[in-house]
Design brief:
This protein is 7% helix and 30% strand. By secondary structure, it is mainly beta. It has a six-stranded antiparallel barrel with strand order 1-2-7-6-3-8. Strands 4-5 form a two-stranded antiparallel ribbon. Strand 6 and strand 7 form a beta hairpin.
Length: 152
């Protein structure tokens, strides 16, 4: 028996992007936009000691996406791929994941770099970025193949 949960925002993203077409996408896209993660007052104690981390995972909701596709053609390739092998917003559960650089904390506001969400996006969770996978052990799947085809 499985149990579902109901998510609720712990805060909201404030950033420069008002429409999804403004967000850099595709091969070589740089996510360097600065913004803030504004945590709701009741969750501020959960930020205790976060300043010691350089990067954070941010789980958030694609709150403006409707419906989903199990296959999609991303901007970085001309071939369709399964939604679980892409970062498409049209997902069965509209959950996004972004790694941001923590620049500083001011009370319940985290100033970050690497925002790729729309202004006002609900934040579901924040976790410190920790990885035991060395860079040389990572594989980039179809994305590496698409990059190789473009450089030919």
């Amino acid at each position: 028996m499985f149990r579902m949960f109901t998510s609720r925002p712990i805060g909201f993203v404030r950033g420069p992007f008002k429409e999804s077409r403004e967000i850099p996408k595709g091969l070589g896209a740089k996510h360097e936009a600065e913004g803030t993660l504004d945590v709701l007052p009741e969750f501020e104690p959960g930020l205790t000691d976060i300043e010691g981390f350089s990067h954070l995972f941010v789980l958030w909701e694609f709150d403006r996406a409707q419906g989903f596709d199990l296959l999609s053609t991303p901007p970085s390739d001309d071939r369709p791929h399964g939604v679980f092998a892409t970062r498409s917003p049209r997902r069965p559960n509209p959950v996004g994941l972004t790694v941001v650089e923590l620049l500083r904390r001011e009370g319940r506001t985290l100033h970050v770099r690497g925002v790729d969400m729309l202004d006002g996006t609900p934040i579901l969770d924040i976790k410190p970025y920790l990885s035991s996978v060395p860079a040389e052990g990572l594989r980039r799947g179809w994305l590496a193949e698409a990059e190789a085809r473009r450089s030919e």
